[in-house]
């Protein structure tokens, strides 16, 4: 699943570490998400969207395989 975490972090001037702390995960988790190696749980997806004050659909892009 693709995502816009990196772009949204840049817009909001947040580091990977800051996002990780805000959603209570490790920085490594944020790195894995940004690189598309990890798909978040629905709860984590909601938390990340909330940090950016947007919808899950605006952060994560689902593509049919």
From TrEMBL:
Gene3D superfamilies: lambda repressor-like DNA-binding domains
SUPFAM superfamilies (UniProt xref): lambda repressor-like DNA-binding domains (SSF47413)
Gene Ontology MF, one: DNA binding
A Pfam match: HTH_3
Keywords for this protein: DNA-binding
Domain HTH cro/C1-type: 5-59
PROSITE patterns in UniProt: HTH_CROC1
DNA-binding recorded as keyword: yes
Record-given protein name: Transcriptional regulator
InterPro entries given in the database record: Cro/C1-type_HTH, Lambda_DNA-bd_dom_sf
Organism expressing this protein natively: Anaeromicrobium sediminis
């Amino acid at each position: 699943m693709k995502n816009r975490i990196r772009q949204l972090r840049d817009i909001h001037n947040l580091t990977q570490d800051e996002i990780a702390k805000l959603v209570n995960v490790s920085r490594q988790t944020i790195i894995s998400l940004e690189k598309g190696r990890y798909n978040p749980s629905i709860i984590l997806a909601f938390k990340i969207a909330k940090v950016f004050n947007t919808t899950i659909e605006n952060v994560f892009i689902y593509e049919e395989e």
